[in-house]
Amino acid sequence: MAEIKAIIFDQDGVIIDTERDGHRVAFNETFKEFGFDAEWDVEYYHELLQIAGGKERMKHHLETKGFGVEVDPDEVDELIKKLHKRKTEIFVELIESGKLPLRPGVKRVMQEAMDAGLIVGVCTTSNEKAANAVAHGILKDIKFAFVLAGDIVKKKKPDPEIYTLALEKTGLEPEECMVVEDSHNGVLAAKAAGMHCIATTNGYTENEDLSQADIIVSCLGDPDGEKGTLSKGGDGLDYDGVLKVSQLVELFSK
Predict the structure, then answer these.
(1) Domain boundaries along the sequence of the chain
(2) Which of 47, 53, 122, 235 has its CA 20 to 30 A from that of 151?
(3) Is the C-alpha dihedral spanning 45, 202, 112, 173 positive or negative?
């Protein structure tokens, strides 16, 4: 097995549990501002999460349920862009307000990775502005080698394109990288790229099929905070509810 040289994080649901109380809220506020009769409740938004990308979700909703007003087909793409731009502004405001805390263990693992000399990066379908607000705002103490986000790739997860782009930028081999994901599509993307994958579940993804991940935990865990539970993998790990970078490197380097 190759030596582990990098750890890559998805953002939404992995770094911050953003979906339910972040993105969903921002979408609804945007619809309200634009005067559209659309509101995504918690259950319906879970359905929409099976579609990768915010613009894609809005377009799907428009085509299947509508916005309560007639929209000229020739104006759809431009409208979706405007909606998504405003939604991103609202979402960034939520992040900067501190109302969306980091998930347990995320910053600790990033710091451990830095201390171990690993490359730390982010690969997310979230908008670039939103991704940078997280990476260079509340995580400003972490030195990220790259933050790949939004429309930087044409094909979104479960397509592995964003992870293959990360490999191109770092010059690493897939087996030298481990990825932290939280969703079915994210796990599929990481494994299709040939990378090791740790899945951390949340309220939206705990019942999704994450079986292709090498390890599945409820969260990365903190020694003095919330501990995780292990539901798959980790054979031979001395697991106490806290996943450590040293353990993961040893496991995936065998």
Answers:
(1) 6-18+101-253, 19-96
(2) 47
(3) negative
CATH class of 19-96: mainly alpha
Between strands 6-9 and 177-181, the pairing is parallel
- The sign of the dihedral angle between the CA atoms of 200, 160, 155, 127 is positive
Angle (CA) 35-36-38 rounded to 5° is 140
| Catalytic-labelled residue, pool 10, 17, 182, 222 | 10
Mean pLDDT along residues 72-100: 92
CATH code of domain 6-18+101-253: 3.40.50.1000
pLDDT value for 97: 87
Does pTM top 0.70 for this prediction?
yes
Q: Is the pLDDT of residue 20 over 90?
A: no
Active site residue 159: no
Residue tagged 């750890």 (tokens): 7
Q: Is the pLDDT of residue 86 over 90?
A: yes
The H or E element containing residue 198 is strand 196-200
